[in-house]
Structure formats: C-alpha cells, structure tokens
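Z., the sequence and structure:
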Amino acid sequence: MEEEAPGRLELWLHLAENCVLTTLQQGLDQVWQLLLLCLLCRICFRTRLPSLVKHVVSMATGSYGLYLFFEVHMLWVLLLGAVCYLVLRLCARSSRRGPFLSGAILVYLLMGELHLIDPVTWNKMRGKCEDMAVVKPLNVEFPRSMVVVVTSWNIPMSRWLNTYIFKNAVKLGTFPAILVTYTASALLHGLSFHLGAVLLSLGFITYIEHVLRKKLAAVFSACILSRPCTADCSHRHKKGWVMVVNVLFSLLAIFHLTYLGSMFDADMDDQAIEQGYLASHTLRRWSELNWASHWAVCVCFLFYCLIK
C-alpha cells in the first residue's frame, strides 16, 4: 500500500499537468481576446456615447473577432457583407429586394461549393448557423444511461442515423433496427475492426439496458427508464430509492464507457494510431479485462429474461 501511494499521486499529478492545466491553457489562449472584446463592447454600450461611436466600436470589434479566428480569410465574410449592402442600396426603391438579395447570397454560396474559393478556406468560412449543438458533455461524463451517452455524443450524426437508418429499419423489429443502425455507423466511420467492435457492443449494451430499465420501470412504477421521465409521468415512485437505482445504473454506464474506451491506447505512437488498431489489439485488451463489460451485459440480459 505504501508503494502504491506515490504511484497514484504521480498519476494524479500527471493528469493535472497534461490534461487539466493544458486544457485550461489552450481554452484561455483561444478566448481571452474574445472575452476582452466583449467587455469592451459592454462598457461602450452601457455608457452614453453617440450612436455613431457605438456602431464604429461594434464594427471594429466584430472585424477583429473574425480576424482572431479566420485571420486573412475574414475578407470573404466582409466581401459578402459588402455585396449584400450594395444589393440593398441598388434595390432601395424596389419591392423585390428580398429575391435580389437571396440571389446574390446564392451566387456567393455556389462559388464556394463549386470550389471557386479554396476548399479549405471555404470549409472554415461557411460553418453551420442552425443547431450548433454537437455534444452534451455532462450527459457523457455523468451519464444517466448508455442510451443517453450515444444520443448526446455527435448529436448531428445521431439524429441522421435515427432519421434515415433506424426509422426505416424499425419495421424489422427494434433489436434488428438497432443492429442495422450501429452497423451503418461503423461503416460510416470506416472499415475498422476496433470501431466496429465498439459500436456493435454499444448496440447490444444500449438495447439490453433499455428493455431492462423499461421492464423495471413498469414493474415498480418508478422513474428508472433509460431517459429522464417527464414531469407529468404516471410513475408513482420518483424519489428516494429511485435515485439510488438511477445512480447505480449511471455507475454501470461509466463502467461500460471505461471498458469500451480501454482499447484506445494513449501510449501507442501516432503512426500506429493513424494506421489503425489491429483486431488482435482489441481482443487482447478486452481479454486482459476478462470481458467484464460483456459479461455484465449478459447478466443484465439474463435478469431481464427472468422478469420478462
């Protein structure tokens, strides 16, 4: 025990130095100037300065904010703004300002999509203005269930798979539809054994967890479903031991995540990672862990069969 203590302390220090401090430093490097610009605008708009001064400050800080993230490529955004302003000025007395403006923007977008603008630059500039949520970190780090994890990580991909794969395959049955969906996800991520193994394992885990918790919720009339219940749900039990059960399932989800993530070896060199993990690496790593998560899933499935 005395020998393990220094090792654990060294591990925590290593994590603090290479994970926590590095993340904070990189985050501050990215946003400190942007936060300073926001503070400057806030002060300017809270004071009784002339309207012209406020507009100039807003334009200057906005342009500099673009430069911070896009550097010289900000000129493409300014060019679009200038084109829109010119179209509106030329059509000031026309009742068709909207169609003309839409046409100008469409031509600009087509220039980018047809690679008349450098593809790398265009990909940085066009962005996506609708539904910017990509991941919900708290749902992943402190999961209620594995179902919540897979729907909170890479949200656009999850929604696409649900809309175009799962809903079309659900006529085959829920479990086959889940397998088809995760198989499609594995193919979209590339023909990689280790990713396919993880995703298909997720398919089995999420399905068994879902049906087990659904059955338990019906038997005990408790809010222990994979997803949080609505405020007006019909379950009688909502607190007390229900919270304990949900915490236990959360710990089980964290265990599954740790197990599935164990195969992504951080000690491997970058070249080996880029070449991809071999099937033997995946099987060996899980074998070293005695296939613990898979056995846990089997136990949950057997328990579900007993109470079904």
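The chain has a mean pLDDT of 82. The longest helix spans residues 4-46.

Let me know what you think.
H.
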